[in-house]
Amino acid sequence: MMLKIVIVSCCIALALCQPVGKCPRVDGRYPVYLSDSRSCTKFYECSNGRPYQLKCAYGTYFDSHSRICKHKQDVTCGSRRRD
């Protein structure tokens, strides 16, 4: 029973945390970073068509325009959470 609860919880967490945009199927010369649809501290790095979730360092948010983590005061999160 406990295993079922863990599996369902993981599925829900994965469904709620989604990148904004899609990863290219083939890696290019430079890495592709996508913002998280719900959190300002999380973002995704694409590799071979798959997004891998990462988190910005303490005190920084992911800037969806420049595609890097910046100081909190320099980033507009919009509707994304500031965790």
From TrEMBL:
Gene3D superfamilies: Chitin binding domain. Residues 20-79 form the Chitin-binding type-2 domain. Keywords: Signal. One of its GO terms (cellular component) is extracellular region. The lineage of its organism: Eukaryota, Metazoa, Ecdysozoa, Arthropoda, Hexapoda. This is Chitin-binding type-2 domain-containing protein. Residues 1-17 form the signal peptide. InterPro entries: Chitin-bd_dom, Chitin-bd_dom_sf. SMART domains: ChtBD2. GO terms for molecular function: chitin binding.
